[in-house]
Amino acid sequence: MRDNTTIVSFDDEPLMLVDPSDNIIGFEEKLNAHKGRGKLHRAFSIFLFNDMGEVLLQRRSELKPLWPGYWSNTCCSHPRRGETLEQATRRRLREELNLSAKLTFLFKFEYQAQFKNVGSEHELCSVFIGHVNGRPEPSYNASEIQDCQWLDSDEVSGWLDSELIGTTPWFAMEWERLRADFESALKLSA
């Protein structure tokens, strides 16, 4: 049986600091990179879709310092030193959800979002999508995720507009771009 509580994210892991053109300009411990307004660092987001028109969403663990308990896209994280985005996305899907899928890069964007007085995300984020058949049940890592749900793609906008459902800011920005510019890619079968 898989251990669903393995710690896979560390405050002292070095993140890749980048310039707006995605050139590495240094490294900073994750905790420090998220202090104040944050330092621009490389990140990625993944959306998994199935052949029924659903997307897998995750509710972030209450242990997360930024946006704990908020709903977000399937998976998001940072590549590690010496790791390509392809390697990092495969690793993180496995670590967080015990899932795998062929992933396709769609776009990259920069954003900065403040979470109360705790810290912020300032990321140059590469967005990937993947497709699976059926509704695979993730075996999620409780140190990262407290819940998962397959949601009909047409319902996601309602979640993002709801004051009763907390969602992460990057999820909202990415979803808007996915629907505006990549609608046909979301409907591909696995």
What is the topological layout?
Elements: E1 14-18, E2 24-29, H1 30-33, E3 41-50, E4 54-60, E5 71-72, E6 75-77, H2 85-97, E7 103-115, E8 119-132, E9 145-152, H3 153-161, H4 169-181, H5 183-186
Parallel strand pairs: 3-8
Antiparallel strand pairs: 1-2, 3-6, 4-5, 4-9, 7-8
- SSE succession: EEHEEEEHEEEHHH
- What is the terminal-to-terminal distance? 27 Å
* Rounded radius of gyration (Å): 16 Å
Largest sheet: 4 strands, mixed
Describe the protein:
- Catalyzes the 1,3-allylic rearrangement of the homoallylic substrate isopentenyl (IPP) to its highly electrophilic allylic isomer, dimethylallyl diphosphate (DMAPP).
- This protein has 190 residues and is of the alpha+beta class.
- The chain has five helices and nine strands, in the order ββαββββαβββααα.
- It has helices spanning 30-33, 85-97, 153-161, 169-181, 183-186; strands spanning 14-18, 24-29, 41-50, 54-60, 71-72, 75-77, 103-115, 119-132, 145-152.
- A hairpin with a 5-residue loop joins strand 1 (14-18) and strand 2 (24-29).
- The two termini are 27 Å apart.
Q: What does this entry show, briefly?
A:
The protein has helices spanning 30-33, 85-97, 153-161, 169-181, 183-186, and strands at 14-18, 24-29, 41-50, 54-60, 71-72, 75-77, 103-115, 119-132, 145-152. It is of the alpha+beta class and 190 residues long. The strands form three sheets. It has a four-stranded mixed β-sheet with strand order 6-3-8-7, with helices on both faces. A three-stranded antiparallel β-sheet has the order 5-4-9.
